[in-house]
Amino acid sequence: MSTPPVWVPPSEIEQALLEAKTCGNWVAYFSTLAKHGLFFEIQKEKEDAKPGATHPVFGFDPRVAGGRVWAVYTQGMLPAPEPHRVFDWRRIDWFARVWQPTDPAVIAVNPGSPCEAFLPSAPPHSAAWAQFEDGSPGPKHSMSLRTLRFGGPLAGSVAHGLACGALLCVSNGSFWNAMAWHGQGYPGERRRLREWWDITNRENWMAALNGLLATESHSPVWDFALRLRRSIAMDFGGHVDIGYWRQAVAKVIRANSEGSTMLTEEGVTKSQPRPESEIEAQIEGVQRLIGRITRYEARMRADGILDDGHYVTSVDAWDLGRASKMARWGLGARFGSLREAETAVVQAGRAAALSYKSWRSFSAGYILGRSLHFDEEEFGDWYQDMAEAHRILMTTPDSPWLTIPFR
């Protein structure tokens, strides 16, 4: 007779539930549920028609009297996304507050798994577990590296592409290697894309994703300034004097602003040079940008993100890291399929390997892009959160940035 395989808890959540259940520590079990939130299936058509209302799908379990259960799942136990099967999440006390006499009398936590539990959903019995609600605003964790031990890739091209989005995953408390993405649940992922990206349909999502993969979703002025510095560095053996960089910017902009001669169907024509005031304004703007870039780089050197003497070669990582996440956000919102999301994640990883030499240089490019876009040289949360996420990813032993080769 063969020995049954040992069950591997997918994440630290299920590990904690299993340990608490094994030793009969139900206080620890309920506390874990309260900390992490619970996902449950909802009716997609009704959610699409009336967002914000809750339309749960109840299940059946023959082990329960009457058979009807309200099945709920922790993050590591969610099934792979399907087009018409979607989930929402709530805190543990919510289930007790919204319960109706027509609802199932039992809530089944992770049914069918070794860490399952059946909770009475009707009052007064529900008070025993509903009291453990901790008041947190969402299924969010303190900044840390979270990894799916089972159900998520740990090596290979998909894992590499997923790791390109690891800075955001660490900052948001999500599994860095969750390819089968549910995120904040179907309503939450749709809300995320609508509020942050103005994405409301598949076409919007595809356009945003393709723009990120093509590294076209950040300012071309940033590219111009950094590309010019790279060119100077090649000419001068790596060292770039900031004053010379600023002068070179002025020289190139003026040269590009002169009138040019071109051959057209009507014959040879000459374009008019740009007004001097417009040229000077552009030069001043790019030179201010150079100041911002160099000050962020100095801070990143002080924080150990950049090595001494090194600088950011490009901000492509800002787009590619977000592309890795956008692919998953679109999957969570059901604007794309799992196969499409996986293909995009791999593409993001390959593009990153062409633009950078290491995870460290990729991270510096991402952090600079994010800071230029959001931070306004305040060195506030937009910068500091990424600096801390970088530190975690570069020092945690099982970090993908230490276990997965960048190239």
Q: Your description of this structure?
A:
Strand 5 (106-109) and strand 6 form a beta hairpin. The longest helix is centred in the C-terminal third of the chain and has 27 residues, at 276-302. It contains 17 helices and 8 strands. The protein has a 4-stranded mixed sheet, with no helix packed on it. Helix content is 51%, strand content 8%. Among the domains are: 12-127, no CATH class; 157-218 and 316-403, no CATH class. The mean pLDDT is 93. The protein is α+β, with helices and mostly antiparallel strands.
Name a few traits of the molecule:
single chain, 4-stranded mixed beta sheet, 407 residues, 8 strands, 17 helices, alpha+beta, elongated, two-stranded antiparallel sheet
